[in-house]
Amino acid sequence: MKKTGIVVAAILIVAVLVGGFYFTVKRSRVPSKSQQQALTEVEKINTKDLERDYPSTPREVVKFYNRIITAYYFEKISDEELKKMTSQAYALFDAQLQGNNPSEIYLQSVKAEIAEYKSASKTISHADVCDSNDVRYLTDGDDKIAYVKASYFMKEGSDFSRTHEMYILRKDADGFWRILGYYQIEAADNASGNE
């Protein structure tokens, strides 16, 4: 009987040690909330895994894209960070937009625009995306299209202005909404442009 008690005690000790080791290893792999909060906006953008966590709605795609472009002009970023950020933005683009705008050319145009913004002391101080109820959905043949309106508060020197853009998104074969294009609009413009 004494031998059985020793065996049971030994098994319990081993189970506690294995369980403790498991939780210690698991805890060290998952960043704590304070570690996640310590990431800069650029790091948060660049570490987002779009393969596993792609935005699920047209509005969420535009919101993530806005986080990227706001960081382009507001944050101090290295060339490596910028390349990763443009890669993240590029992943949001529809295949047709990617075909018309190769990734290397997109990177160069973003660099040129950042330089232009810096020379004019211009930043995007805030970006807003329309409410979910204001997203317009249409069908064009087999394509599902969404129109999402975004507003940008720009700061240039000590002056402020507001600009509005309409994003056109198309659902791809995998069911993901991708940015097909965008254009500047007046504040009162609606999604389809013909109502």
UniProtKB/TrEMBL annotation:
Which keywords does this chain's UniProt record carry? Membrane, Transmembrane, Transmembrane helix
Transmembrane parts of this sequence: 6-25
Does the entry feature the keyword Transmembrane, yes or no? yes
Give the protein name, as stated in the record.
Uncharacterized protein
Give the organism the record lists.
Agathobacter ruminis
